[in-house]
């Protein structure tokens, strides 16, 4: 799907699988194997957040679009993220210790530098999934369930997430893996994930509780690109480059999804080797192919055709999608 | 060649090419395509250092085994590396500005933290290739060539490196790419690179100027694993785990070589997608397969079968070589 060139040589290459699915759940375009069984990792966060909204928990807790965006986020631990999650937990009378995710050093440079140079350790709120976990806690409270063990696959919160995941992907999950944040991450097929994203894209406000929840979550993501990832990050910059046209979300091990409300299309892709440089290039190529991203936009170009420079700044090569993905 | 597992699912996988070559230059074992054209990147440093030793430049400058190890190194910018390179340049009456490589933030944590927290910028001596460049400058001086432009592909130093590279790989190079340190990196086939490593492995002191140079370089690497890479790095730890048995060297974009003097074997491998986690696992697997690395040694295990932990420390999966590479 993606080639790495240095001078006249293709030095490395990335294979993968991708699907574009329409409102009827039909795969209208695919690369690789649409039936590949995958772990969507953080690309499934808007699916994991569905019960939070559908159950009425979000309204009962008065969650704002900013908080819904954080529930779907893999944030980089900047103050705009950690302050909001800390306040969210505080509003519930909870704190960092109630999060089941482990601590993670922020990717946000200023926050990272401040912690390291102060000799301090990161906390659980810095974990890129802390917003998702605040959402889990909000749902656990609303369901009157135990909040101590909300990442247990048998817990009401995870059972609700599994049910929504299976209904929207249209498949029974073959199982789960434990994610980096300790929560179960359910497996499905690539086309199942594409179907779920198409459902988010085609959802209409008021048509059903699920449709309304999907609309609120996708709109929250598009309204707050900075909360979904962070400054300089692919999800944030690609959504800023395509205002209101697409919600994108990356997942660990080179997963990526896109929700295109105007075309009512869903996209899901997995780079087989788990390389982020390739998943970012591939999603940018597909967004350009579908006409929602302008390939000349610097924030799109940065992923679609980045140059590889030497330490001294010379142009030594570049990354580019294969012609089958986007001929340019 | 390498699989990434999370729970019951193979989440990602890495393909690649590898060869084991004997003293006669014959490929005795291979995976993938032995004829694949590759850029060996930093795995070619001992080849780029051959003219430095063969020409007599190393002896004329009184270079020590430590300096020869640094000429073959991709060091992590720790004080043990930068102090020695700075002194080496000083002995020639030269300094940082005479290096053609660009500045690079050290991978060595203490050095990196010190620079960042002091608000200082890294210099060219921190570049992981600064030892190779000090060697280039030493050769340029010895040849009476211009020292200002020694990375120019037409410069006597690079022409000498190209000639040695072609003679030892047994192939005319199809061209070069510019490396991250601004020097040309010549292309060859994977089997050509394996042949070159087998020549280093089979070389005998005194049999020829080239053989003697090969012995001095491979012995210098094995004698100073800490100078070839750095604390915690794969090359350093794999050589410490196999004292005197093998010289290994990684290269960017997932290249790896091994020189096995006792068996007179050379190994070269390339993970197609450029992933280091896979090239480190694959070389550890091949060293275990060839009987020079003990798979139960923690420093080998760390690359051969590392566990993937959640941020909270739970075991969520692992990395492992495919059975065709090493059945364990």
Describe the protein's architecture and organization.
With 328 residues, chain A is of the alpha+beta class. Chain A has one domain (2-321): Beta-lactamase (3-Layer(aba) Sandwich), CATH 3.40.710. Chain A has 14 helices and 13 strands. The first copy, chain A, has helices spanning 45-48, 50-54, 57-60, 65-71, 79-91, 109-117, 130-143, 156-169, 190-202, 209-223, 225-228, 234-241, 276-289, 298-304, and strands at 2-6, 9-14, 16-21, 27-31, 37-38, 176-178, 184-186, 188-189, 247-251, 255-260, 265-271, 307-309, 315-321. Chain A has a five-stranded antiparallel β-sheet with strand order 4-3-11-10-9. In chain A, strands 2-1-13-12 form a four-stranded antiparallel β-sheet. Chain A has a two-stranded antiparallel ribbon with strand order 5-8. In chain A, strand 10 (255-260) and strand 11 (265-271) form a beta hairpin. The radius of gyration of chain A is 19 Å and the shape is globular. Chains A and B meet through strand 2, strand 5, helix 6 and strand 6 of A and strand 2, strand 5, helix 6 and strand 6 of B. Chains A, B: InterPro entries: Asparaginase_II. Chains A, B: This is Asparaginase.
